[in-house]
Amino acid sequence: MHIEKLIVKNFKKFTDRAFDFNHDLNLLVGDNDSGKSTIQEAIEIALNCSYRGKPLSSEIKPELFNLDAATAYIEGDKNCESLPSITIELFLDGAPEYRGDNNSLNKNTDGLSLKIKFDDDLKAVYNEFIKTPDSIKSIPVEFYKIEWLDFGWNKIKFLNRKMSGLFVDPSRLHPTQGRNQYISRIINSSLSKEEQALLNVNYRQLKQHFDDQPQVKSINDKLDSENIVTNKKLEVTADVSISSFESGMQLSVDNINLPQVGKGEQNTIQIKLAIQNKASNVDVILLEEPENHLSHTNLSKLVKYIENQRQGKQLFITTHSSYVLNKLSLDKLCLINESYVRLNDIDKSVSNSLKRLPGYDTLRVVLSRNVVLVEGPSDELVLKRSYIDNYDRLPEDDGIDIVVVRGIGFKNYLEIGKNIGTNIHVVKDNDGNHKYNIEEYKNKYDAYKNIEFFSISDNEQYSLEPVLIFSNKATEKELDDYAKITLSTQTYNKYMKQKTLDNKVGFLMDWYADEGGAGKKKVDSAIRIFESDHKINYPDFLQKALRFE
Fold first, then answer.
1. pTM of the complete model
2. Options 1.25.40, 3.40.50, 3.30.420, 3.40.1350; which CATH number does 2-163 get?
């Protein structure tokens, strides 16, 4: 069984939104407060009638309601008909017991619906309550009830539900508050009833051993020896009640109690325990940002564990990690913003490449509105300095993200951009053949108005360095000033031995064309440009590449 579609109405951030999902893996991506966690919460509520692991009946609070819906009620006439309802619908595949048309689409299909709505049985009491309407400042959830039905209009009970989910949020799994639950799960999943009974006996014997210690007996001999507190025998003793069995135990890692180990190790252990102990008994796993507090290596191990332990279950993961996105497959991305976009139709070669080479910042293209793609760090530094010179601030301050494509090439980022609609400006070297490297490359993306290319047609200006040289050679003094900024003192002295402007241009062109250390020379020069107190000239196409309508 799996979830095909979610429809949410008046729940938290969403007034009325619909989301289609992949049958296997869904990587929920979006800016902060875009609604990623809200989607997971809605799924948990509909599947388990629980909110963040607690029974929903005890968690109905005004904060669950969409702000616009709540405001409309507060500012309205406050009649019971004005009270907003929360509706969460899950359209399912593989749950014929839930088949019917009890859904907002009037579609005959498998599914279930959970509503948090006004309880009509309380109408008389509510009408008394609103006789002083000015005192009502929030939704009176005390007058609400939960209606949990399948699409065939049948009531769903927690114990007879046909589909369930596990929501794992390591940031909310406190290692001390939650330890009893974890230990209980480990015991129940790992030990037979006979073994549990034996463990309980041994635990009580251990407690009894504590009571028999000479130091404890000495304390008890002195405790209320004159029977002032009570006429009965008062002793310090270990608690061996059954109810305290789990609370008397603790998880340890290399002889260190779990609450005392590093946060990343705590999160990893808690995620693995939750998945290991519950995954086999649920249909859907909801995992919140597994990358928190983890190094790259440990994140890699955790992602591999999640892949291996999923056991064919439908998995929803929220993430801000490009590594998680790339490694688990870019074509499973579900982008939440003003619109909802899935990358299930992206070129498979792109997602396969990024699985093999996951260490690229693909999420920057996914989450940014305006992106400039450049070939290397030199281009990034020069463009940033150009923007500072024009606007006295960095491009990212205005929502423009300059992304270095490095070895992965432009294609992979452009495939993401053309599917999502990100505004992308490509600053690309012509490499001495403008027709082939720019014009023919650009033609592949002519149908996508959100993608534009910026380069120079002069083949002699084959890369950034020649472009900048030609932009700063109107006079010999101008070129000398440019050289003084971009070259080391030793190299600048060699440059100044050149007798003519043409010779100086030739020196600089040869200097950056030297294959022996061209890369380092270009980066060093770009750093000098970025940090210099003096300005240089930039070609028009670089300036235009930083302008977005």
1. 0.80
2. 3.40.50
